[in-house]
Amino acid sequence: ETGVTQTPRHLVMGMTNKKSLKCEQHLGHNAMYWYKQSAKKPLELMFVYNFKEQTENNSVPSRFSPECPNSSHLFLHLHTLQPEDSALYLCASSQLDDFTDTQYFGPGTRLTVL
Amino acid sequence: DQQVKQNSPSLSVQEGRISILNCDYTNSMFDYFLWYKKYPAEGPTFLISISSIKDKNEDGRFTVFLNKSAKHLSLHIVPSQPGDSAVYFCAAGRGSQGNLIFGKGTKLSVKP
To answer: Model confidence over B81-98: pLDDT tens digits?
Structure first.
């Protein structure tokens, strides 16, 4: 595997379900991200992990819970979601250095909440 | 209030001609800008970037221009090819803070 991988690619869940999205990066990067992409909206940054520590949480509801066990893996745990949470969830990674932040994205998980 | 704006939701260009995609930003603290390309059912793919110390960066058919005084950047694709048909996002950030701000995207269609 190369680059950034995400599983599952598609997920349908009910509002009372609990599920997890998984992301793995094979690039040796030190930062990982979760983004949400809804129709007609720009990509919204949800969480940033830098060296496994969460450095940003952009006012995301607590029904989304991230976990970063090591610098290569990132999870997004989902519980009691709402239909408006249906969106494409993208994971990205980057090597944060002194100047640049080129993020590389996975293929995304298309989530539908019924 | 959007800090990064792509005011054209779509653009149609003939194969072989130049495609010009535009992006405006409001935050003068941004010092690093990127363009991504996205096909349906795939994640965004990094295309090209530019730092605020430059006004032009070129990579093959893709050139990004930055006008800091106007807070404007553009992506030129020449010659355009049908395979370039995709949604293009511009993004801006401040160095290594790990917080890129994305525009809404412009859908480019290159007609044979």
So the answer is: 999 999 999 999 987 667
Residue A101 tokens read as: 């932040």
CA distance A36 to chain B (A): 11
Provide Rg for chain A, Cα atoms. 13
In terms of Cβ atoms closer than 10 Å to its own Cβ (0-12, 13-18, 19+), residue A51 is exposed
Q: How distant, in Å, are the alpha carbons of A36, A66, B37, B108 from that of A70?
A: 22, 12, 29, 38
Q: Which of A26, A84, A74 is nearest to A51 (CA)?
A: A74
Minimal-distance CA residue of chain B relative to A46: B99
The pLDDT, as a whole number, for residue B2 is 83
- Give the 3-state secondary structure of residue A83: helix
The maximal CA–CA distance of chain A, rounded, in angstroms, is 43
CB-CB: which of B4, B44, B51 is closest to A99? B51
